[in-house]
Design brief:
Distance between the termini of chain A: 82 Å
Radius of gyration of chain A: 21 Å
Number of domains of chain A: 1
Largest interface: A-B, 42 and 40 residues
Largest sheet of chain A: none
Radius of gyration of chain B: 20 Å
Number of strands of chain A: 0
Structural class of chain A: mainly alpha
Distance between the termini of chain B: 77 Å
Order of helices and strands of chain A: HHHH
Number of strands of chain B: 0
Strand content of chain B: under 5%
Oligomer: heterodimer
Helix content of chain A: 55-70%
Order of helices and strands of chain B: HHHH
Strand content of chain A: under 5%
Number of domains of chain B: 1
Shape of chain A: elongated
CATH topology of chain B: 3 helical TM bundles of succinate and fumarate reductases
């Protein structure tokens, strides 16, 4: 009689009678729901920034300022930032749980992941909301055309 | 007489489409995540000064980075379409039955999307425009 080895990830959670009310279930659903929304957001982002017009050559401060002058793109980018970071960090958490067997290694890696997540989400959110398209004292040729109007 | 243990033979999953699509989904996912960290940091430079942002984003416009962007888009498009395949396997009653066919559909859609994107992007990168 062959015995199947215990799963190598005991931290994955205690077995319960039901998966209802389980945060891992919520995460599983979130990955699928956010994934569908992210396809729309990121494909749109890539189309506008890399495919339309001059593509990558057109991207400079003026391009970003022109986009964020519109609340539409502010909301688009904010949603993309949050959903992509939660989706990505949760995915990397799964990978760490799968491969880092030692408790210390796993805790350190997940600590670093949480740190990177918080820094990037807070920084990105602040940048979108505190962005000044016409910073004083900047050369006019680097700024969007509406700054001089 | 008991036979000596041998390496596990391939199964319906191991070494087949199911396993390799899972491996590719992980690798593309982790790669995209690390790009995302860098990408938010470089975009945050708009808050430092227009000149600093333009200098750093300028490095994205050289041909080597241009090829990197092509790879990044290839990874994102695969991860996106294979993600839809995973959702169909999970929620569509016939999903598990057609998972292998759906992987070929993912690869076909990926090739089609890349055929639309690559020539135009490479023209932007290597065309020397503006």
């Amino acid at each position: 009689m062959t015995t199947i080895a215990e799963p190598r990830a005991p931290h994955a959670g205690r077995r319960r009678g039901s998966t209802r009310g389980n945060t891992e279930l919520a995460g599983w659903i979130f990955m699928r729901a956010s994934g569908v929304v992210l396809i729309v957001l990121i494909f749109g982002h890539l189309f506008v920034n890399l495919w339309a017009g001059e593509g990558i050559h057109a991207i400079d401060f003026g391009f970003v300022a022109g986009k964020w002058a519109s609340p539409f793109w502010q909301v688009w980018d904010l949603l993309m930032l949050w959903l992509a970071m939660i989706h990505g960090a949760n995915g990397v958490r799964t990978v760490i749980n799968d491969y880092a067997e030692r408790d210390t290694t796993r805790h350190v890696l997940k600590g670093l992941l949480l740190f990177a997540f918080l820094v990037v989400v807070v920084l990105g959110t602040l940048v979108i909301f505190t962005f000044d398209p016409c910073p004083p004292g900047s050369p006019a040729d680097l700024l969007p055309s509406f700054c001089t109007a | 007489m008991p036979t000596a243990p041998t390496a596990p033979a391939g199964t319906l999953y191991r070494g087949r489409e199911g396993m390799w699509s899972w491996v590719a989904h992980r690798i593309t996912g982790v790669a995209i995540f690390f790009f995302l960290l860098v990408h938010v940091l470089d975009t945050a430079l708009v808050r430092v000064s227009p000149g600093d942002y333009n200098d750093v984003i300028g490095t994205y416009k050289n041909p080597i980075m241009g090829l990197g962007e092509a790879g990044l888009v290839a990874a994102i498009v695969f991860h996106a379409f294979n993600g839809l395949r995973i959702i169909l396997i999970d929620f569509w009653a016939k999903g598990p039955k057609y998972q292998r066919v759906m992987l070929w559909a993912v690869i076909g859609l990926w090739a089609l999307t890349m055929a639309g994107f690559l020539p135009r992007h490479l023209m932007h990168v290597f065309g020397g425009g503006n």
